[in-house]
Design goal:
The protein is 73% helix and 0% strand. The chain has 217 residues and is mainly alpha-helical.
Length: 217
């Protein structure tokens, strides 16, 4: 029995020892949990204070940065439209229309277009010459002389203005001037002498010996 009694006492002692160890662990765990909770609260409180101070410092520094007063326009810059340009008018095109009207006997319309041609190109020789022919037809001899003499100055080697000036002065009875211009025309272009023998505008010269000399050359 003493053996059994000793065994029971030993078993009871082991149970008491395990209970005490278990109770001790529970007690120690409770103290540790409360300690950890206090530390967490302190850390969180410090973190909040640090964030508050950092935000305050950022706001203070941002207030010290100078603000630009110039507004920035981010709209796309577009190039200025090109200046308006008038369409280019070809004087030859107008002259060709005038000449067709001239040949067709529409002299008023032809004169208007010859003048329009000369507004674009004041030195257009053929327009000056043909305008002079229309002025001769209209018996406006001063105007005819003016445009024809301008044509001779601009192109001294062109036969038509000289020939038509000979006609103007022959009609006006200024035979000396007429013969001088006819002589120049024939020197530039021989067949002009054949024109002169058939041109009624030069009939005042036909009996002149000087006229015969000019056309025979």
């Amino acid at each position: 029995m003493s053996y059994i009694h000793e065994a029971l006492k030993k078993a009871q002692k082991e149970r008491d020892t395990r209970r005490g160890e278990y109770d001790g662990v529970l007690s120690t765990s409770g103290k540790g949990a409360r300690s950890v909770t206090r530390k967490a609260i302190r850390v969180a409180f410090l973190a909040v204070i640090i964030l508050f101070l950092a935000f305050g410092a950022y706001s203070w520094l941002n207030s010290k940065v100078p603000k630009t007063t110039k507004a920035i326009d981010h709209r796309e810059e577009r190039p200025a439209p090109p200046p308006h340009q008038e369409p280019v008018i070809d004087p030859k095109e107008i002259y060709d229309r005038a000449r067709a009207l001239h040949i067709g006997g529409r002299l008023a319309d032809a004169r208007r277009l010859y003048l329009e041609t000369l507004k674009i190109d004041p030195g257009y020789i053929d327009a000056l010459n043909n305008l002079g022919v229309i002025y001769i037809h209209d018996k406006d001899y001063p105007a005819a002389s003016s445009v024809l003499e301008k044509a001779t100055r601009l192109r001294p080697g062109h036969v038509d203005p000289y020939y038509n000036l000979a006609c103007v002065y022959a009609i006006r009875g200024e035979l000396g001037q007429s013969l001088a211009y006819l002589r120049k025309a024939v020197s530039l272009y021989g067949p002009a002498g054949d024109w002169a023998q058939k041109d009624a505008d030069l009939k005042n010269l036909w009996e002149s010996p000087e006229f015969q000399k000019i056309i025979q050359k």
